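fwd from M.: "can u put these together and see what the complex looks like"

so here's what she sent:
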Amino acid sequence: MHNVVQAVILGVLIGGVYALMASGLTLVFGIMKVINVAQGALVILAAYLSYALFSHLHVDPFLSILIVTPAMFVLGVAVQLVFVRSLRGPDSQELSLLVTWALALGIEGVLSVVFKTTYRATNPSYADKTWTVFGYQLSFVRLMAFIASAVLLALLSLLLTRTKFGRAVRATVQNPTAATLLGVDANRVQTLSFGLGVSMAAAAGAVYGVIYPFNPGSHYDLISRLLSIVVLGGLGSLGGAVVAALVMGVTEAVVAVEWAPTWAAFSYFVVLIVFLLVRPQGIFGLRERTL
Amino acid sequence: MTRTLARVAALATVAALALAAASAGRAASGPIKIGISLSLSGDFSDSGKAAERGYKLWQKLVNAKGGILGRQVQLSIQDDTSSPTQAQSNYQTFITKDKVDLVFGPFSTLLTAPSAVVAHRYGYAFIEPAGGGPAVFQEKLNNVFFTQPAPVLQSGDVFAKFILSLPASERPRSAAYPSLDDPFSSPIADHVRGILSKKGVKTLYTTIYPSETTDMGPVIQKVASKHPDAVIGGTQNDDAYAQVKAMIQQKFSPRFLFLTNGPNDPAEFPSKVGAKNVNGIFSTGDWFPQEHSYGNAAFVKAYIKAYGGTINTIDPTAAEAYAAGQLLEAVAKKTHSIDNKTIISALHKGTWRTVEGNLRWNSIGEPQGSDLLVEWINGKLYPVFPKSVALHKPLVPKPAWGK
């Protein structure tokens, strides 16, 4: 039982970080119906930026969120304006997959040239700190990562529910045509939301680098996990992404400890498939109505 | 009529011999051309470029000494983009179109195995620095000579030998084996487990995790719950870093910790796990900068002069490639020939001195030596076993994290 509880703790802590990464992906899909497959690469890009700030300027990786996030918000806005907005017509969603995949490969290539392909890790002085609570190990950095993720997700939620911009975003998610007719500037909402999605990846990346070693190719594993989280949570649902990320974290950790690590990722996909058979729209997704 | 014919035949024979001699004379007067396919782009580009540095450094030094058999060495290096088919194609071109005198091997088992077959088809010796996996030796080719002390799968055996060299009271009684699902990782740990379990080291836990496992927390949690004396992991670099970090975070410090890869990289390991956490961790290596092997001090000095950095930043792949050159130099000196058939025959006899130690092979190119056991002691990486090459006394048991 001790092992299971410890595994649940590990799973919840890491699930929180995945929730932050996936939040940007689901937000962008909800508004623009664009699956940003560069989200994983953007996380890794942010991990490198945070690593560089830590290595060269001794900026604490958690404080670097305050620098990396706005910087990558601007990058996200630029990407949306230059690459994504120009995609029009009935195939625009499919084309956006290709465009964002090209972006991911471009980011990977640039990082390989600048930082080489060797693994990096952001190791602040408190990286080894662990608290023992009732016999359970609580890694300080993982706890901090979880708290940072929870705070950022809460801020994102407040932004979406308590501001005029948030109302415009939600209106666009629910019915883009009606939102436009009611005066919502859809282009502006899409651009800012894409930037917001990228900035969530940025914050998660700064945290990711403290927990895991990474190299430019690390985004391949990430994006497959993020997509599966978004699908389980329900495309476009922020709350769904959070719940799905926690389900993934806990399922994988418990299976790895109680059964075998080989089956950890597989078991999550079994949960995903079984759930989707029962509820195809995901945990909080809305069922599409057809005439 | 018969005498006339005989005279014509004799003249023709003399003329043919003279032409052959002249032709041979022309060939022998030019540079010795060596074709090498290397991964200068793609997944293996970092290591491919390291091999290139080793080959080029050897070329520079050997040419400065007057070359081989009085002829300068000319390397023809082609990028294979880390693709096995491109590597095969490169060797085919080297041999059939460019008609190089010799070839050296590419980087990694994946590219070496098919390339060695091409070289074998045309009777070329295949001195290769980085193809030590089973796929290379399964071909059972007599032209392959791997310039490292031991095949990859046996690279961890040196740790088992070290453990068995300890007094019984100091040996671990139990072990756990968390390993990466990778042909160059988990089989090495399995091999060590086979040796140790026969000698009474109880296996408490063994598991293989897939390469996409980023979070090593649950794996180490399970290992720690078994309380093994030793943890022996078949690892590559990133999962080794993650294993160590997870052990630190879970306050689990086994008496013996051996990881096949990761801790053997002096330039990277301390920054990944924290410099204060490295002490007492064992790994294995085929080459070490301070090793007293043949020509090693000169290699290290020339490498730093040519490429900068410190002894800790020299990629062992460069030393492995350099050893390939040393080997050719030695066999040419001994046989007075660079004929491929002569080289193959000669290398199958005796022991050959290189920066990688004294090498000898069985009939299919598997080296018959032992890798080095290296350990972090006082923040530095030292070879500690076998005793003949050790530069420091082993530190056992492993100190607690941060000590």
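replying to her w this: Residues 2-216 of chain A form one domain.
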